Amino acid sequence: MNKLSIETSHQLIVMGQDDYVKRVCSYYDQIYHNEIKCVKFVFPLVTDKSDNNVFDFDSCNDFLQKLEYDVVLFIAFSVKVHRQIQLFLNKKGFHNLFFYTPAVDNKLKKEYFSKYFEEQGERFNYIYEMDNEGYTQENKVELYMTKCIVDKPLVSFPNSLPQCVIQIQAGAALTDKRIATVTDDIGDNISSRNRRYSEMTAAYWAWKHSKADFIGLCHYRRHFVDLGKIVSKLNRINIDIVLPLPTLYETSIYKDHLMKYTPTVYKVMLAVLDEYSPEYYDSALNIYDKKIFIANNMWIVRKTVLDDLFSWLFPILFEIEKRIGELEDSYYNRYAGFCAEQLTGLYFLYNKRNWKIAYAEKMFLY
Fold it and tell me: Right CATH number for 3-100 from 2.40.160, 3.40.50, 1.10.760, 3.10.20?
């Protein structure tokens, strides 16, 4: 991304929600090596309920009074808040607004991680730009998109999906309502445990039943960008794993992610990991103390990789579940799904030299 497309000086004013503001500024610090000074304004939350964030816009009045009206403001909010903050700032006389969208995030991420990997002496494989390797291999690719009866309606859901996308109903054993032709309650399955495992009941079903060369997982609101090109690359390049661009945390994976989603389960997860897989336990302590992680339970992997991953993962998850049981809070009761995300991310980082990994963009639908 050309920095002049956003600001015309060496100062970038970033306003928005706390985690987005810090992430944007971290991107710019890495990409431009502090050539651009980021001035931050974080809007305080009125409520911190999940997916229902309400912000105190008036808190920025004193800050805005110190700015010229023609300054460019980088607005770092979730897309669903963009219209509200735009109307608010327009009324205050500010119209040069640059919004932090999933497309902008992907561009910044690509530049950030290109530099980051280079500095770490590692290769950054951005799948869309990888050169074909001179052979053609027709792989069967199945990307399972999970749906559940509790999903929220989306206004931006695409009218059609690529042929390789298979919509699968997760937790089908818990309801008579059918929202997909493929359900996760047939044959060898853990569908009835969906309230703890979330999308991982569908992932388990795909592992046990799919015969595809590559098997993937995405969500009804999280998709890979330009999936057709990704599938084409899988047929022309020797790739084992496709992952979404990594996630950058402010402090560490432990403090910013694990303590947010599994605060009462984390110690149990580590204890089970130590017992079942001590080599991963030692790496986990190091990896979870860092800022770069693979999040969201999204991936496209060779069937052989999936066999290796899930043969390792699910026995650990089942033991964690055996020790924890049911949690009263319905959100935190999804702990097995959260642990799956944390352990799968650990697996990919631990094995990054054993498999050829490429990275792709993801989009978030509203």
Answer: 3.40.50
Q: Tell me the three state secondary structure of residue 222.
A: strand
CATH code of domain 127-364: 3.90.550
**The pLDDT value given to residue 2:** 43
d(CA 110, CA 94): 30
C-alpha neighbours within 13 Å on the C-beta side of residue 105: 24
Give the integer Cα–Cα distance in Å for 252 and 61. 32
Give the type of residue at 307. Answer: D
Given a contact cutoff of 8 angstroms between Cβ atoms, the answer to whether 316 and 277 are in contact is yes
The CA distances from residue 191 to 185, 186, 264, in Å, are: 5, 9, 24
What average pLDDT does range 211-231 have in this prediction?
96
> Domains of the chain: which residue ranges?
3-100, 127-364
The DSSP 8-state label assigned to residue 172 in this structure reads G
pLDDT computed for residue 135 by the predictor:
74
Interhelix angle 335-350/266-276, rounded to 10 degrees, is 50
Q: Cβ(241)–Cβ(299) under 8 Å?
A: yes
Only one residue has tokens 């580590």, namely 270
Give the pair of three-digit tokens for residue 195.
Answer: 């309230």
* pLDDT tens figures, 264-305: 999 999 999 999 999 999 999 999 999 999 999 999 999 999
d(CA 111, CA 100): 15
Cα-based distances in Å from 260 to 105, 162, 266, 271: 22, 34, 10, 19
For residue 9, what pLDDT band results from cuts at 50, 70 and 90? low
Q: Name the residue among 214, 206, 169 with its Cα closest to residue 189.
A: 206
Residue range 94-145, pLDDT digits in tens: 999 999 999 999 999 999 999 999 999 999 999 999 998 877 889 999 999 9
- Whether 350 and 312 have beta carbons less than 8 Å apart is answered as no
